[in-house]
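re: the backbone from monday

yeah here it is again, tokenized this time
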């Protein structure tokens, strides 16, 4: 059985099981679970349909295979920009963003947490990326919780009598990245107290609570903190009644600077090396929308391997910053 036939069979089998009774029972359970687990973006339910997105093992492997060289190209562009002001200028950063990009992070990876937003067309196996979210990638905890909810639905229970189905968890990778960066920064193996940092009024507060519960289940202490409620005294950052070792930054740097200025306690503590922050300010380089244009620009082709150039050409739509040039 080829991959296309496999996927068509899985989708048809799932649809065939959606009788009025099982669909009604599943929808009621989905709605109840969304409410019970707080799976909302602001006041909007994260999911209102009973149809999940299926990937075959071959599709999943193919997507991962194409992403690996693309991420290598992003990392290469980032490293080159830090030592080449002309290349850095192509990212269209502000003066303060350029200055912060050179702050020492204390760990190896410039962007430990990221999210590539894409369109995937299974009929043609076409993968096209529209954004590299390298600053505050959201959705990992939401996605994991939704997968847990779907695994318990009557429709999925019936489907799994004939098909093997498993989710792709993201929270473990988030926690691993956070702790790994902290231990590199600290220089020894020790668990941090994490501050999940963002404004109290943002619509993703429910996801912060999901992360807090997950961190606690693995023995990691955390607190959800508004940037306006932190203090930096005696070489230590405090917030939510705790001393903060690691900032899981969910607040945009631009908003932090706009509301709190360049001398905000968080920024002073990060610059001084008194707190670890993931993602660090240098993430702004690749988070810029212009990063897609930088990867595609023929002026920069020498920065990338042939495999990376092929991955860029295949997966990033033609992108340029409008300017006077040829």
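seq for it, each position gets an aa:
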């Amino acid at each position: 059985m080829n991959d296309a036939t496999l996927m068509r069979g899985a989708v048809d089998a799932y649809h065939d099981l959606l009788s009025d009774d099982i669909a009604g029972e599943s929808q009621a359970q989905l709605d109840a679970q969304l409410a019970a687990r707080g799976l909302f973006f602001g006041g909007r339910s994260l999911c209102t349909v009973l149809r999940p997105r299926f990937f075959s093992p071959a599709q999943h492997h193919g997507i991962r295979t194409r992403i690996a060289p693309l991420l290598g190209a992003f990392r290469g562009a980032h490293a080159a920009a830090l030592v080449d002001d002309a290349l850095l200028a192509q990212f269209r950063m502000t003066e303060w963003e350029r200055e912060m990009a050179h702050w020492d992070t204390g760990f190896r990876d410039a962007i430990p947490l990221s999210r590539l937003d894409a369109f995937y067309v299974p009929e043609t196996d076409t993968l096209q990326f529209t954004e590299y979210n390298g600053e505050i990638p959201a959705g990992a905890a939401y996605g994991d919780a939704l997968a847990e909810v779907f695994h318990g639905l009557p429709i999925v229970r019936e489907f799994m009598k004939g098909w093997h189905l498993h989710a792709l968890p993201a929270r473990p990778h988030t926690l691993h990245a956070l702790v790994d960066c902290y231990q590199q920064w600290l220089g020894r193996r020790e668990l941090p107290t994490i501050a999940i940092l963002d404004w109290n009024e943002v619509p993703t507060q429910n996801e912060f609570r999901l992360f807090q519960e997950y961190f606690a289940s693995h023995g990691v202490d955390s607190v959800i903190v508004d940037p306006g409620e932190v203090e930096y005294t005696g070489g230590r950052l405090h917030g939510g009644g705790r001393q903060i070792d690691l900032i899981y930054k969910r607040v945009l740097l631009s908003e932090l600077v706009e509301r709190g200025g360049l001398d905000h306690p968080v920024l002073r503590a990060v610059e001084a090396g008194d707190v670890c922050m993931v993602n660090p300010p240098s993430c702004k380089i690749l988070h810029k929308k212009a990063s897609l244009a930088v990867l595609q620009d023929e002026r920069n082709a020498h920065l990338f391997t042939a495999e990376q150039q092929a991955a860029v050409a295949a997966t990033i739509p033609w992108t340029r910053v409008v300017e006077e040039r040829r």
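The mean pLDDT is 95. DSSP finds 14 helices and eleven strands in the chain.
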